């Protein structure tokens, strides 16, 4: 499971774990896989979100945050 950090226009940021991030209509959905189906861990309106970053741990143990470009949902 990946760690994501969501930055919002209000200055608020939230860190959470999810298996994937998708854009579902006007919302960004952070989802976890449960018993073969996807369950929303967090859903936010896209107009409130400025940036989504995913934590990457390098082989030497250092942490890097990469900017994510969520994919449109296929369902």
Describe it for me?
- Helices cover 0% and strands 68% of the residues.
- With 75 residues, the chain is an all-beta fold.
- The chain has one domain.
- A hairpin with a 2-residue loop joins strand 4 and strand 5.
- The model has no long low-confidence stretch (mean pLDDT 89).
N-C termini distance: 21 Å
Provide the structure class: mainly beta
Side-by-side strand order of the widest sheet: 2-1-6-7
Number of domains: 1
Determine the number of helices (DSSP H or I, runs of at least 4 residues). 0
Mean pLDDT: 89
Strand content: over 45%
Residue share in helix = under 10%
Strand segment count: 8
Low-pLDDT ranges: none
Order of helices and strands: EEEEEEEE
Shape by Cα distribution: globular
Give the C-alpha Rg.
13 Å
Q: Report the sheet with the most strands, covering strand number, pairing sense and barrel closure.
A: 4 strands, antiparallel
Summarize the structure.
The chain is an all-beta fold. The chain is 0% helix and 68% strand. The model has no long low-confidence stretch (mean pLDDT 89).
Characteristics:
four-stranded mixed sheet; mainly beta; 75 residues; four-stranded antiparallel sheet
How is the secondary structure organized here?
Blueprint: E1 2-8, E2 13-18, E3 20-24, E4 27-34, E5 37-45, E6 49-57, E7 63-67, E8 71-72
């Amino acid at each position: 499971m990946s760690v994501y950090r969501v930055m919002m226009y209000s200055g608020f940021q939230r860190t959470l774990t999810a298996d994937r991030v998708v854009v579902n209509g006007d919302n960004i959905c952070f989802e976890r896989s449960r018993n073969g189906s996807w369950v929303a861990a967090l859903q936010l309106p896209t107009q409130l979100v400025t940036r989504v970053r995913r934590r990457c741990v390098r082989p030497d143990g250092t942490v890097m945050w990469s900017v994510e470009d969520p994919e449109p949902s296929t369902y």
